[in-house]
Structure formats: C-alpha cells, structure tokens
Design a protein that fits this description.
Length: about 170
C-alpha cells in the first residue's frame, strides 16, 4: 500500500503546473532530458499536474542534477550502487542523482554487459513520486516499492501508485 511523508506534504492546489530545470553545469544531452520528460509524463497522465521544463534554474519548482560524493546537502553519494538517487518531499523539489552510477539511458538493461548498470527512467519515475509527496509502498509491483534490482527496468505505474497520487492531486 502507498504511503505519504509525515504531514502529507504536497504541491498546493494553486500550483498544479510545476516547472523543472536541469543543473546547468551537468550539460545533459537532449536524449537524457527526454528520459526525464517521459518519467514526468507518467505522473501527469494520471493527475491534474503538468510539468514544463524551464531554463531558469533558480525559478524552477523541481531541480534535477547529477552529483558525486559529498555535494553539500548532508546526504553524500557513495560511488557505484548503494544509494542511486534521492529526492526531497514537497515543497523542496530537489532531485539528485549519483553521477558515479553506470546510468542506462534508453537501453535494454538486460543486454548491457555492466552488472552495475541502473536504468535511469526507472529511478526517475520513482524519485518523481517522492518529489510529489509519495513515500514507499508495500506493493511489490508499485513504482514506489523500495527495491529494484540492477539490470531491471520498471517504469509503469501500478494501480497502487495511481491510487496514492490521485489522493494527493
Ligand atoms: N534512494 C532512496 C529512495 O529513493 C532514498 C531513500 C531512502 C528515501 N529512504 C527513503 C527516500 C525514504 C524517500 C523516503 O528510495 S535509492 C530505489 C528503489 C533508490 C532506490 O538510491 O536507494 C529507486 C532510488 F526503489 F528501487 F529501491 C531509486 Cl527506484
Ligand atoms: Zn543530494
Ligand atoms: Zn524511494
């Protein structure tokens, strides 16, 4: 079953049109940006929320960046595997990914030779759930279930994820 963060934080009703920006220093390719756009679309399809990319990092509701090791927020990344990414609950909006992972972008994860490869879209869909206010779920096929094996891809919202997010938005 889905959960929320303590106090059930959510983006307020006056703000269902959320903007997101990529950390300029990361210089991400349009292919990588498209993976995030697809991940956002999975959540906007089942809610009244919309997500629009903005170039103005300082104005964005949601910010996305790749960092390595200690990056100044008290939750240092740890190199390959372990923590892959973290996202803060509303109304914070920060979504950080561990730049030391072997991120798989648009790839067939099962055919990569890297045993430590991690599917970017799978992690993005999960972390966006946190950005929007969902905690972890006890339902195994839910996106918000707190385990994913490396070399696997899970990007489809389960009915448990949809039920949870539709209570918030
Ligand atoms: N990062 C954890 C996560 O996003 C961070 C975390 C731990 C957390 N406890 C939390 C976040 C409680 C919010 C609330 O769950 S992670 C997965 C999954 C991670 C894990 O790097 O371990 C995914 C990132 F679900 F597969 F385990 C993405 Cl999909
Ligand atoms: Zn961080
Ligand atoms: Zn999580």
């Amino acid at each position: 079953h889905y959960t929320f963060f303590p106090g059930t934080p959510r983006w307020s009703t006056g703000n269902s049109d959320l903007t997101y920006a990529f950390l300029p220093a990361n210089n991400l390719s349009s292919t990588v940006k498209l993976v995030f756009a697809r991940a956002f679309a999975r959540w906007s399809e089942v809610t009244t929320l919309t997500f629009t990319e903005t170039d103005v990092y300082s104005d964005a509701d949601l910010t996305i960046g790749f960092f390595v090791g200690d990056h100044g927020d008290g939750e240092p990344f740890d190199g390959v595997l372990g923590t892959l990414a973290h996202a803060f609950s509303p109304p914070d909006g920060r979504f950080h990914l561990d730049g030391d992972e072997q991120w798989v972008v648009d790839g067939d994860v099962t055919t990569t030779s890297l045993t430590s490869a991690v599917d970017l879209e799978s992690v993005a869909v999960h972390e966006i759930g946190h950005l929007l206010g969902l905690g972890h779920s006890s339902v195994e096929d839910a996106i918000m279930f707190p385990t994913i094996s490396s070399r696997s891809r899970k990007v489809q919202l389960a009915s448990d994820d949809v039920d949870g997010i539709q209570l918030l938005y």
